[in-house]
Amino acid sequence: MGRRKRERTPPDAPGPRPARRREAVSRLLTGCGEFVSARQLHALAVLQEVDVSLTTVYRALNELEEQGCADVVLDGNGERLYRPRTAGEHRHYLLCRDCGVSRVLDAAVVETWTERVGEETGFAALEHLVQLSGICGPCQSTDPAGRAPGATAGE
Ligand SMILES: [Zn+2]
Ligand SMILES: [Zn+2]
């Protein structure tokens, strides 16, 4: 066993402490309103001259998720997108794969089903990740693939 060093935070610790950086990330996330990736949030931090690394952003988002302070969805590429959770309970979302706009869903049926699965299987502390994705109305009318009828081919 090595020497046990007691973790002491000196009053004039250099640089912002982890908790403060997490707070900063949390504030940035709250300011976004929509789902954002860690990369997008880090880009925002750079813009606003908030001194956090991408690694810190990833870690902070992870912690926020674990603490139930953020909702998470996966985008089309499997990247995690985060949004601050305002209500006490987690929510389920419908996400546009084109523009990323999101809507909160009434997913009481998912919660009921989860509870029932727990009762039937004897499993405790069940977790679930349920999300729907599609193409929102505005994105359907501005189809970037140019498949709209009457579009002239440029070749
Ligand atoms: Zn859309
Ligand atoms: Zn749920």
From TrEMBL:
Among CDD domains, the record links this protein to: Fur_like
Report quaternary structure and partners: Homodimer.
Tell me the Pfam families matching this sequence. Answer: FUR
Residue ranges of region Disordered?
1-22
Q: What is this protein called?
A: Fur family transcriptional regulator, ferric uptake regulator
Note accompanying the cofactor annotation: Binds 1 Mn(2+) or Fe(2+) ion per subunit.
Top-rank lineage group of the source organism: Bacteria
Q: Mind telling me which GO cellular component terms the entry cites?
A: cytosol
Q: Which PANTHER family does the record match to this protein?
A: FERRIC UPTAKE REGULATION PROTEIN, ZINC UPTAKE REGULATION PROTEIN
Lineage of the organism = Bacteria, Bacillati, Actinomycetota, Actinomycetes, Kitasatosporales
Q: Where are the transmembrane segments?
A: none
Q: Name one GO molecular function term.
A: zinc ion binding
Residues at which Fe cation binds: 111, 128
- UniProt source species: Streptomyces harbinensis
Subcellular location per the Swiss-Prot or TrEMBL entry: Cytoplasm
InterPro entries per the record? FUR, Fur_C, WH-like_DNA-bd_sf, WH_DNA-bd_sf
Which residues take part in binding Zn(2+)? Answer: 96, 99, 136, 139
**Which UniProt keywords are present, listed alphabetically?**
Cytoplasm, DNA-binding, Iron, Metal-binding, Repressor, Transcription, Transcription regulation, Zinc
Q: Which cofactor does this sequence's record say it needs?
A: Mn(2+); Fe(2+); Zn(2+)
According to its UniProt record, which protein family does this protein belong to?
A: Belongs to the Fur family.
Its GO biological process terms?
A: negative regulation of DNA-templated transcription; regulation of secondary metabolite biosynthetic process
